[in-house]
Amino acid sequence: MEMRDAEGPLLVSGLDERDALLRDGLAREVLDLVVVSPLTPVTPEIRALAVREKLGEWETAAHRGRAVGFATAAWILTGSWADPVAGPQRLDLIIGRNRRSPRLKTARARQIDVPTEHLQTIETLQVTRPVRTAADVARDLPCDQALALLRLLQELHDVHPPQVLDLLSFMPYARGAAVAREVVREWSELR
C-alpha cells in the first residue's frame, strides 16, 4: 500500500498493515489504526477526519444530537491528549438526552443536551467549541491533566478563565461543575 500526500486519514485493517506502513516510512499514525502520509501536516482538520474515520458509520451531526466533546475535542483542537503516555483510551462522544447510545468499543457516549452555539463543524464533524471544551475538560479530568489542556486551549484558541467560569455559571447542576470552577480558578492563578 502506498499513501499519497493528497490523501486524508486512512483507517488501516489491522496492526500488521499499520506496522508495515510505519516501518517503511509510508505513513504516520494520527489515531489508533488511523494513518496519514508522512508529508501531511496534522492539523485540527486532519485530527477531526481521523476521528470520523475511527467512528465509521456513527454519524455526528448537531441536528441528530451527536457531537465529539471532552478530551477528544481537546485533542482535535490542540493535538494533545489528556494523558500523553496512555494516549486515547476512548473517544468521548456526546449524544442528546433520550437518544440511543452507539455501540462502539472505542467510544464513551454521554447523554447531554449541548446547545448548538457550543458546537462547531470541523470537516463535517460536530465538535464542541474551545470554551465549551475547556469547561468540559475542567469538570471531567484530574486537575493536572485538565490544567495542561486548559493552558493549550488558551495558547492556541485564546480561551481564558473568565470565559470558562461564565459558561460554568450556566451549568450549575452539570456533573463536576463545582470541581471545574476550582480547577479554572487554579488555572487563572498560574498565569
Task: Note the topology.
Elements: E1 10-11, H1 15-23, E2 28-31, E3 34-36, H2 44-55, E4 66-68, H3 70-78, E5 91-95, E6 107-111, E7 119-122, E8 125-128, H4 130-140, H5 143-157, H6 161-169, H7 177-190
Parallel strand pairs: 5-6
Antiparallel strand pairs: 1-3, 2-3, 4-5, 7-8
Helix pairs in contact: 2-3, 3-4, 4-5, 4-6, 4-7, 5-7, 6-7
Q: What's the short story on this structure?
A:
With 191 residues, the protein is an alpha+beta fold. The longest helix has 15 residues. It is globular and about 50 Å long.
Rg, Cα atoms, Å: 17 Å
State the share of residues found in helices, binned by percent: 40-55%
H/E element string? Answer: EHEEHEHEEEEHHHH
How many beta strands in the DSSP annotation?
8
Structural class, from secondary structure content? alpha+beta
Protein name: AbiEi antitoxin C-terminal domain-containing protein
Organism: Kineosporia babensis
Walk me through this protein's architecture.
The protein is of the alpha+beta class. It folds into two domains: 1-42, no CATH class; 43-190, no CATH class. The protein has helices at residues 15-23, 44-55, 70-78, 130-140, 143-157, 161-169, 177-190, and strands at 10-11, 28-31, 34-36, 66-68, 91-95, 107-111, 119-122, 125-128. The protein has a three-stranded antiparallel sheet, sandwiched between helices. Strands 4-5-6 form a three-stranded mixed sheet. Strand 7 and strand 8 (125-128) form a beta hairpin.
